[in-house]
Every structure is written in structure tokens, then in C-alpha cells.
Amino acid sequence: MVGYGIQSMLKDGHKHLSGLDEAVLKNIGAGRELSAITRTSLGPNGMNKMVINHLDKLFITNDAATIVNELEVQHPAAKLLVLAARAQQEEIGDGANLTISFAGELLEKAEELIRMGLHPSEIIIGYTKAINKTLEILDDLVEKGSENMDVRNREEVVLRMKSAVASKQFGQEDVLCPLVADACIQVCPKNPANFNVDNVRVAKLVGGGLHNSSVVRGMVLKNDAVGSIKKVEKVKVAVFAGGVDTSATETKGTVLIHSAEQLENYAKTEEAKVEELIKSVADSCAKVIVSGAAVGDMALHFCERYKLMVLKVSSKFELRRFCRTTGAIALLKLSRPNVDELGYADSVSVEEIGGARVTVVKNEEGGNSVATVVLRGSTDSILDDLERAVDDGVNTYKSMCRDSRIIPGAAATEIELAKRLKEFSLKETGLDQYAIAKFGESFEMVPRTLSENAGLGAMEIISSLYAEHAAGNVKVGIDLEKGACEDASIMKIWDLYVTKSFALKYSADAVCTVLRVDQIIMAKPAGGPRPPQQGGIDED
Fold this sequence. Notes:
GO terms for molecular function: ATP binding; ATP hydrolysis activity; ATP-dependent protein folding chaperone; unfolded protein binding. This protein is of the alpha/beta class. Helix content is 47%, strand content 17%.
């Protein structure tokens, strides 16, 4: 029997959800569920999540970008928030948690407005006006004089980096920030806008503690040198991407050997050829050979004879970074390198750090383009989390190279935005004033979450923050250690303007996209009914 309406149009097994209850409110519910997961990880006292992905890999972290990536969210509306967080992570490298948590709060307020009788279109108009006003207010809150900054001044860099690193590793920021700042300043180019995040590497070595961590000007390779030479200084370096071995001919051939003498001569000619190749490299003044593939036994024997140090770097990405560190050009096959194809290193040495043998390639002189932060910790999961904190710090440095303006942290900015947006909503005449007021109210989520995660009374702190801001103290935020309100400039807690503005913009855009959806039509998938979804948020 032929169905009627939309059933007659689509295949059997399709799903069609429409209207406020079925589509809009269910989408809002999915977004809220996702933000509830990440919200408890917001701020320095944020809790860790234990996520086990589909490959059975364990992640213990409070980094929202890692959490939502590994969750494999299935619900289409919640995916929009994940995409917003991913965009924030790629653009700025920090603030993904704020993006998701703030979007979840906006969706919650939108649900209240819908139940009051407002149409989603009116909410979208109100939210759009509110985000535009928010960005205007943020410009007013920028600290005077912060736009002029010397990105090579360690103190100024640490000041801006501190809050990003503290949100991942609270209590360790005083150790980590100087390390990251030193590494970034070492590789900062003449034009800071061209700073490349990939130039700051992280080497994770189990054992010791964070206080044993250090910065190396150059690279740290997590393998031993091949052969007996373990240390050389002020040397030329030759890099061969195709390996150091006798190359096989491209065509197949047969060699007929009639006597033992001929066999001996054949072996000797091969030996002589290898020796000739290695000698030509040694004659070019190179003292270190770096191979991108296997190192043959015979080639190694002659390298030892000519006192050449041999390193093996199997990853082609690592090989490229090695070339960038030393200024060498990777050659495809074993041959005598030209002078301009050789690189230079101040020292190449094998050191033992915490039971692991690593090769340290140092370039102390100018022109160095790679720095490595050597992290020490007791377990792999701790090291992974420390690496995320370092990544956040490096990304913050990249952002401050483009725009160094700062605004008060510790929820001072959010309370000021909430206060001013509520005042702005009273000047509006249409129904969208309710949406603007709710948008302003959503900013209370940040101080509330920070207080709850630190085990403080949220309502008490929010009311005292409002009282301080009403008295004109716009920089007053939460001191989580004392559990009281304190001036952010005294606590030296600053957030980058660019991080905050992008996070709020992406949140508002994602929320408006979710609210614009009024029907969900899922066609029947090819090959029969869709199997039940594993993980993520259930589609029902």
C-alpha cells in the first residue's frame, strides 16, 4: 500500500523528524549533553576524563579537543559543536573547551526561550546582535598598551602563555612556561608573523620528573647512533634519504661464474665500489652520515674505517626536520655530496637520559630553526598530557605573534560581558531583547564552572563579582586558591583577546546553525537498515 505525504516520497526505512519537539529540542539536548561532558574539565581545576577509543587506546586528559576527537560523536547536531571546537583548535590552538561549553549554555538558554514561546528565528536574531555587541565590548576591555609587544621578551611571553598552560597543568605552569617560551623565542624568525609551530618539537622520555625537563637548541632523536662513534663536534653532515647501502640495478641480469677466483673478484669489486662511495663522502669533509633507510653492513664497515658517525632516521618527517635543523639537503642515492648540499651541526652526541639512549643534535650558533623541549615524567599518559600543555603554549605564542592584545582572565571578562549585555538588552524593543539578555546570562557559566570545579560556592562568588563590577572594578576575577574575588592584573592572569573572540564567535555560529534546523530527514542507508550506533550520542 502506497503511503501518503513524505512517506510516499522516500524509501522504506527512512526517518523523518520535524517540528520543535522532535527536531529542535532534540538537537539542543544533544548539544547540551556534549557540553556537559567537557564543562567539568574547564579551567585550572578541571577534572580529567578517561577516554578509551575504538582502538583501545587510553587517554587521560582534560583537553577538550582530544576528548571530543576521541569520542567519535555521531549525532549530527552535536557534531556541529565538535566542528566548531576543531576550527578553534586549528585556528588558535587553545579555547576548544570554552567553545563547546559556551555553545552548550547558549543552547540551554535557547530551550528556555522556546518554552517561553519565542520562535527560533527571533532567538537567532537576538543571538547575532548579542555576539556583535560582545565583540565590541571585548575591544573596550583590552589592556592598554598590550598591542605593542616584543615577542622575544621572555617575561611578556610567559605572562600571556601562563593561563593557557595552567588550564592544562595547574601548578606546573611556572616550570613549563619558561621552557616553552625559551624554545619559541629560539626559533622565532625575523618576521614573527611567520612563526611555524612545527619548529618546536617535543621529546618525551619516561623517568625523572618535570623539573628534569630541558630545552635543546636542535633535535633529539629517540634512537642510538649506528656504529661505534658516539660523539663528534663542529661537523659537516650528509643526509641520504635512500639509505646507505649498495644499490641494486634497475634491470635484472644473470652473472655466470666459472671459478672460485672469479667469485672472489666479483665480491672484491662490490667491496671496492662501496669503499669508493664511502670514501667520496669522507673526502667531501662530511663527518656524519644520516640515512633515511637501512644501513648495509659493508657500508657501515667502511664508515667505521673512515671515522664517519652514522645515524638512522626512519621517519621521513623527522628527516625533513633534521635537514631544517642542520641546513642539509637530502640526497636520493649514495654519492659524493656538493658543498652546498652538506649541513652543519655544532655537536652530535649520544646521551643516556633515564635509561633511554638518545642522539642530541645541537646547533647553538645562529640560523637554527628547530628547538626541542625534552619532557620527563613518570608515565606515558602524564607525558602525553604535558605535551598537550606544551602544544597549547606554542600555539598561544603563534597567536600572540599575530595579535598580542590581552584581556583580564579569571572570569573577569565574562562577568563584565554579562553585565553590559544585560544593560544593552534593556535598550532593545523587540522580542529579541529576551534572547540578548539570555546570551548575557550564559557568560555566568564560566565563573560558575570555575567555582564548582574548584569546590567553591558558585552563587556567592558570582554575586560578589557582580557587586565589584557594578562598582567599576572591571578587572576583578576569581582567585581560585583563596576562594575570593581578586584583581586579575594583581594575580597576573591574562587571556589573549584573539583566543576569546574566536571561541565566542565560533560558539554563536554553531548555536545559530543548530537552531536553524527544523527538520531532520535520514534516508535509508544502502545495504539495509542502519546498524545501532556504537559510542557517541544516540541518534534517538
